Write the structure tokens for this entry.
Amino acid sequence: MELQQQVSTLASKLGAILADKRLTITTAESCTGGGVSYALTDTSGSSRYIDRCFVTYSNEAKQVLLGVTESTLQEHGAVSEQTVLEMCAGAAKAANADLAIAISGVAGPTGGSDEKPVGTVWFGLFLSGNQHTYHCVFTGNRAEVREQAIVFSLEKSIELLNS
């Protein structure tokens, strides 16, 4: 299945689960630039489970909007497990949401390093006080890395809600 169709299918499925369970969701996105929230709000009726989402591309935005600490960003960098944990907790609190998805990564084609090559993406999921993190290194061009990250976050959110 083409990635864009997969995103649409997964977003609809996640939305249906959220609506059925009467849960709310928010996102805190960096490298995906709002792609997850776009996919979720592309479905009619999404206002039942989404109030607000955050695109926090800069470190300053992560700090101001989500409460990510300067020390976390300096010590671990924006693309790290520690940062996505703070992003998803901050987003859940700011949006008063049951589920929060945080994504931070290096989509490319530049910006990678030996430690964090292009395609490196960290994910944080927050559900009712429990946090989960995932780390992936995707291949492909910038658009493909971003689409794969969106698909992965939707899949993991569905898995978490169904567990």
Remarks:
- The mean pLDDT is 97.
- The longest strand covers residues 120-127.
